[in-house]
Amino acid sequence: MAGPVQSIERAAAILRLLAGGPRRLGLGEVASSLGLAKGTAHGILRTLQHVDFVEQDEATGKYQLGAALLHLGTSYLDVNELRSRSLNWADALAARSGEAVRLGTPLEGQVLVIHHVFRPDDTLQTLDVGALLPLHASSLGKVLLAFGAASLDPPSEDGLAAYTRHTLVTPEDIDRALAGIRELGWGAEVQEMSMGDAGIAAPIRGHGGLVVGAIGLSGPVERICDPRGRPLPALTSLLREAARAISRDLGAARW
User: Fold this and answer.
1) Burial class for 170, CB neighbours closer than 10 Å (0-12, 13-18, 19+)
2) What positions belong to coiled-coil segments (predicted)?
3) Strand ranges inside the chain, DSSP E
4) CA distance 121 to 108
5) Burial class of residue 70 in the structure, from the number of CB atoms within 10 Å of its CB (0-12 exposed, 13-18 middle, 19+ buried)
6) Highest mean pLDDT among 30-34, 55-59, 68-72, 92-96
7) Inter-helix orientation angle 139-146/171-184, to 10°
8) What is the pTM of this model?
9) CB 163, CB 177: distance < 8 Å
10) How far apart are CA 202 and CA 184, in angstroms?
11) Nearest-5° angle of CA 138, CA 134, CA 245?
């Protein structure tokens, strides 16, 4: 197995040094603090500056953490706050509904599952945390699309992926579905990602009412829907109550 890469270790040390100080640091201060030659420290700082992880003050020539790195940190905190605020409500929703609960946020044109509560029975289930779901074919994704928390990338020449014969792939069908979600306040996918499965989802809002994620129930279509394929009202009510409770904890006004 290959060992650690020295240049990356040094770059990480520089970032920690800049993050731990109350002020900007000059090249000499960075080099002496870490026992590096000035030329080595300068080369690493220039590379970090190139990718916006470090910024250099034009007047003093000193360095500080850059906007790109701060954005990554903010994104991490946002996702973890969303997850931590949702844990108890997600557990309660699974217990009350008898179905699996997933929490999702947008990530690079997909939905990242950041929390998953198993259906409270003895059936074999697979943990979905870390899974990426398509925006257009999942209830979580369609809710994020409907409320402006995510956007679809321009389709390739082959168009959007059709996972089943029920998957919505045309702009007209997707726009119609998203309009319906905005009107109802929740969204569904019935056998659109895999035959025999269904899901419903509702938006989670943060400060100012912005949608920051979605919470959903998923399971076999006969458990989520009535014989005509319509989501059961009792489940949608439980789901929306949980979404509102998490939103209030995140600072959203009542809605």
Assistant:
1) exposed
2) none
3) 54-56, 63-65, 100-107, 110-117, 132-134, 187-190, 197-205, 211-220
4) 34
5) middle
6) 92-96
7) 80
8) 0.72
9) no
10) 10
11) 50
Note whether 85 and 109 are within 8 A (CB).
no
Collapsing DSSP to helix, strand or coil, 65 comes out as strand
pLDDT in tens, 6-49: 889 899 999 988 887 667 899 999 998 899 999 999 999 999 99
Which residue do the tokens 């569904």 mark? 188
Q: Higher-confidence residue: 179 or 16?
A: 179
**DSSP letters for 95-109:** HHH-SEEEEEEEETT
Helices 67-97/233-249 angle, 10° precision: 140
CA 58 to CA 145: how far, in whole Å? 41
CB 216 within 8 A of CB 101: yes
| Rounded Cα distance, 173 and 51, in Å | 40
